[in-house]
Design a protein that fits this description.
By secondary structure, this protein is an all-alpha fold. It has a domain of 33 residues. It has 2 helices and no strands. The termini are far apart. The model has no long low-confidence stretch (mean pLDDT 86).
């Protein structure tokens, strides 16, 4: 059985090509890719609401008043 590193290398070669490796700065190509997407806005709004509820619950647990 091959190591996980070997399996990942094999997968990367299948996806990116034999000599291609993911670049260090490739993440920059994703910046703004969801701009104006109504589904992504809904997701972000839901996450923000959940974070605010978590913060409020934490404040109540430690007795912090606003």
């Amino acid at each position: 059985m091959s190591s996980i590193e070997d399996r990942i290398t094999k997968l990367e070669r299948a996806v990116f090509g034999k000599n291609a490796e993911p670049g260090r700065d490739e993440w920059q190509a994703t910046v703004g890719m969801f701009r104006g997407d109504p589904v992504m806005k809904e997701i972000l709004d839901d996450v923000q609401e959940a974070r605010e509820r978590d913060r409020e619950a934490a404040r109540q647990r430690v007795g912090v008043k606003e």
